[in-house]
Amino acid sequence: MTLSSDTRNREIRLIARPRPAVTEALFQLVEGPVPQPGPGELLIRVLYLSLEPAMRGWISDAPNYREPLPLDETMFGFTVGQVSASNHPDYAAGDLVAGRQGWREWAVSDGSDIDRKLTPAGFPVTCHLHLLGLTGVTAYLGLLEVGQPKAGETVAVSTAAGAVGSTVGQIAKIKGCKTLGITGSDDKVAACKTRFGYDAALNYKTEADLSAAIGAACPEGIDVYFDNVGGPVSDAVMAHINVGARIVVCGTMGIAGSDPDSPPQGPRYQRQILVKRARMEGFLVLDHMDRRGQALQDLETWLEAGQLNYLEDITEGLDQAPAALMKLLAGGNQGKAIVQLGPAP
Amino acid sequence: MTLSSDTRNREIRLIARPRPAVTEALFQLVEGPVPQPGPGELLIRVLYLSLEPAMRGWISDAPNYREPLPLDETMFGFTVGQVSASNHPDYAAGDLVAGRQGWREWAVSDGSDIDRKLTPAGFPVTCHLHLLGLTGVTAYLGLLEVGQPKAGETVAVSTAAGAVGSTVGQIAKIKGCKTLGITGSDDKVAACKTRFGYDAALNYKTEADLSAAIGAACPEGIDVYFDNVGGPVSDAVMAHINVGARIVVCGTMGIAGSDPDSPPQGPRYQRQILVKRARMEGFLVLDHMDRRGQALQDLETWLEAGQLNYLEDITEGLDQAPAALMKLLAGGNQGKAIVQLGPAP
Predict the structure, then answer these.
(1) Which of A264, B107, B117, B329 gives B101 a disulfide partner, CB atoms 3.0 to 4.6 angstroms apart?
(2) CA of A227, closest CA in chain B: separation in Å?
């Protein structure tokens, strides 16, 4: 577990597909010299990697919303880095950038895999990997554009203490909703209540009757369900939706990784969807990037105003990234999973 | 099996709940004198009863979108009748009316259970029980408001030869879509192709691999699925939906009647809904009655222009209504299920 050196570059490549588990054996650490930028290029020292639950899908060859990452390529991922040298007119040494440099310590870029230059602000630069990154935009647009919560309504969130879930819960509160968080440990339940302001929070692993507990926590029923799991936890929520409920299918962590030849089984929802005239809709943030600017503007305003809390789970060292991803997929993290490669700017 | 007499009234009451099957034992035929209208009332001779798949839900005490019909009351249902005598200023003897007189030969009304007075037109009065009744309005609004098909898209319909399904398929063609009908007999497949203009039709009971057959019939995938069944047929359709697909959950005949204590199981759809960013939405026509006028206007225009075909499955005699309903629920009917009580006007 070491931070990156100035002379050697290390990167992690994907060398196999999940079958279905994500293991260290899928990844290979490769070492080489630090690359040098050519004309019009810049050299970025990657400081932080963002880990996402969606990475399981990105590296799997099961049907997904994008082509899987090709084998033997550098693992794809969102990053924050600092420009070390630049032959690019838009960037100078010392600039901080958010981009898609992937799992490597040093990256040469022509600018096309940089999303934006970061300006110093009253919050850590890592916020650009969660609240002000794709995580925050996902929570904002998924909840507000698909979920369409109205003040006074009840919003339920699965993986409620996670990076997306905790942001959804807080935005719902900002919008005047009642919130229920469902999560997988007592520590996370505590974080939901104290840090993320949920009105109620439940540990699905220890509730003897999760559906009954949800019913007790939401006496007025559930109007919006922001779903990151899609499995038995969702079954328990679905029993309590109101007429006109909206279910935002944002992730399927609770059923992912199952054998693609025998899809996971569960209760059929159609009768409940019909009786409640509910709307269940898949949400992929990449379809909504035209609204990203508005999302980031509101999120930054709320963050600066202290209305959005967050929790980071930072692992040090590129070589630890596969293990950190496995921990994230197993629900073992507390907060946004980040791997730190270089010294904080 | 007799049509109604002028002197005696017969009605059918619901006396038990489905457990879960709908049987003749749930109903009781009761005979009495023909009622007489008081001041402001009129007497209607019921000529036709409309039978609906949704009746299973109306008489069941499982959770539904409305309270179940109370026991020992006259079976609820849509009707066409003729005014026999009237003390009501808006109606005169001889008028034809569409309403909710239920399973009885004669009904006294104060007008509140009459939906509209019918004017003679170039089509049989029974059309007001299907194409120009709730069936047609359901097909029109469910397809166009929830399904939102665009010209050139592919629309799949389950129970494709049924009263709602066959109308959905024809409206989709009028709107420039390609259509696939899925139904349960070779006769119905033939009706789909010849009478209802589907581009392709499949018998789900005889296809060895329904999903493969759907894939072959819809090489461009499915953009709108108008779902009346919700069971294994829907699983096969869901495997072929396109990005951005809309699934209109209008009925659940394929899973209805199951033991409410052990809900039917099936593959979980969430992964597919997410990957395809699909929208699955429950549709109940009663929520959309503000758009009924527009629907009826278009439907009547298309019917008069010969753009809408229909098929009626008429049973004679009130006493045959329970058996006709059982036949409908078992998929044994060919066309809109109607019970004729009186002579055609």
Answers:
(1) B107
(2) 9
* pLDDT per position as a tens digit, B127-141: 999 999 989 999 999
Answer whether B159 touches A (CB < 8 Å): no
Q: Are residues A150 and A251 in the same domain?
A: yes
Instruction: Tell whether A183 and A324 lie within a shared domain.
Output: no
Taking CB atoms and an 8 Å cutoff, what residues of chain B touch A275?
A: 63-65, 282
* Cβ neighbours of B284 in A, within 8 Å: 274, 277
B267: left (phi over 0), alpha (psi -120 to 50) or beta: beta
Residue B138 sits in the same domain as residue B282: yes
**Strands B200-203 vs B178-183: parallel, antiparallel or unpaired:** parallel
Do the domain assignments include residue B51? Answer: yes
How many CA within 13 A on the CB side of residue A11?
23
Is residue A291 exposed (0-12), middle (13-18) or buried (19+ Cβ within 10 Å)?
Answer: middle
Residue A294 located in a structural domain? no
Q: Are A280 and A269 a contacting pair, CB within 8 Å?
A: yes
A293: number of Cβ within 10 Å = 10
Closest CA to B130 of B328, B270, B317: B328
Q: CB–CB of B274 and A250 under 8 A?
A: yes
The complex's ipTM?
A: 0.88
Range of B270's domain?
Answer: 134-287
pTM for the whole structure: 0.89
Assigned domain for B88 exists: yes
Which of chain A's residues have a Cβ under 8 Å away from the Cβ of B275?
63-65, 282
Q: Is B60 exposed, middle or buried (0-12, 13-18, 19+ CB in 10 A)?
A: buried
| A273 with B250: Cβ contact below 8 A | no
Residue B238 pLDDT grade (very low, low, confident, very high; cuts 50, 70, 90): very high
Per-residue pLDDT, averaged over A83-103, amounts to: 97
Helix B292-304 / helix B163-174 crossing angle, nearest 10 deg: 80
Considering only CB atoms, which chain B residues are within 8 Å of A273? 249, 280-282
